[in-house]
Design brief:
The protein is built from nine helices and four strands; from the N terminus they run ααβαβββαααααα. The chain is mostly helical.
């Protein structure tokens, strides 16, 4: 007899997959730098070069992460043109109470609540930790979902907060930014070294070009695939955790059906990095995007998983 997967099975499975994908980032980066460098120099020199490249890159990632950590959440809310609300506003008092109730059910602190002035249906969560988290909802999602469906969406966002997904996504975005910047510097150094006819300089130029190629493969092929895979796994995990919080997976499934008919948030059209943090891609459906490059799993699979939970 086939065992029926519970909410806890889904959460555990997706957390393990995410952990493996995150560990893959630095390992693949190191392997690429070594293998590309090994093409032009002996293995021992390639290993030394890899260490010299990897250590400052990881240090730069850590420094930039601290900067993103301090300002990332406010930048996201500003990009969405989100306005904070409170329970003192009669118009949003019920929404505020719903967020409060879901937070209590999730065992998390009450997040700040923001409204995005857009009639489409979408939502996202942000914040450095559960203690200073925020949940943003569009006007459209408030108007078009019933109370149970909206609580399912809020629970999904609370799950992202509880699972520390915002912290994870911030770390990935920061790492990508640093490696793109580093690749540009290395390319300029390689071109500069190539202008000198000295044999040692030519050798250095060849090594730098190989390191640059490793960065380019990592930045434009490996990273997008891995990051989107992490994003899809975190959406599955948030769905499962959100269903556990409300004890009503079918309400979230129903909400997703409605949301995907009108998820585009116009103010986020030019902020591509925000796509992964929203409950559905705010850029709207993309017919020609490969499943490997999609920020979210197919809604049909998300709904199927939710409706199969016990």
């Amino acid at each position: 007899m086939t065992k029926v997967k519970t909410v806890y099975d889904h959460i555990r499975s997706n957390n393990i997959k995410t952990m493996l994908l995150v560990v893959a980032f630095p390992l693949i980066f190191i392997a690429l730098v070594f293998l590309f460098t090994w093409i032009v120099v002996p293995a021992e020199q390639a290993l030394n070069t890899t260490i010299k490249v990897a250590v400052p890159t990881f240090i730069a990632c850590a420094v930039w992460l601290l900067i993103s950590w301090a300002f990332g959440d406010s930048m996201m809310l500003h990009s969405a043109q989100a306005q904070e609300i409170s329970d003192e506003d009669p118009q949003y008092r019920e929404i505020f109470r719903s967020v409060e109730n879901v937070a209590i059910a999730a065992g998390l602190p009450q997040p700040r609540v923001y409204i995005i002035n857009d009639d489409s249906m979408n939502a996202f969560a942000t914040g450095r930790s559960p203690k200073d988290a925020s949940v943003a909802l569009t006007r459209g999602i408030i108007k078009k979902l019933d109370k149970l469906e909206l609580e399912g969406v809020i629970a999904h966002e609370m799950a992202h907060i509880g699972n520390r997904d915002i912290r994870l996504d911030m770390m990935l975005i920061t790492g990508i930014g640093v490696t793109v910047f580093a690749a540009d510097i290395i390319f300029r150094l390689a071109i500069s070294s190539n202008h000198n006819n000295n044999d040692n300089k030519n050798n250095s130029s060849a090594i730098l070009l190989m390191v640059w190629l490793a960065f380019m493969v990592f930045n434009w092929i490996i990273t997008p695939i891995l990051r989107m895979a992490v994003s899809r796994n975190r959406e599955y995990a948030a769905d499962a955790t959100g269903a556990h919080i409300t004890r009503n997976p079918r309400a979230l499934a129903s909400a997703l059906r409605k949301i995907t008919t009108d998820a585009r948030v116009e103010c986020l059209d030019k902020v591509k990095s925000m796509a992964a943090v929203c409950i559905a891609d705010p850029g709207g459906p993309k017919e020609f995007v490969s499943s490997l490059m999609a920020t979210h799993p197919p809604v049909e699979k998300r709904i199927e998983r939710l409706e199969s939970m016990v």
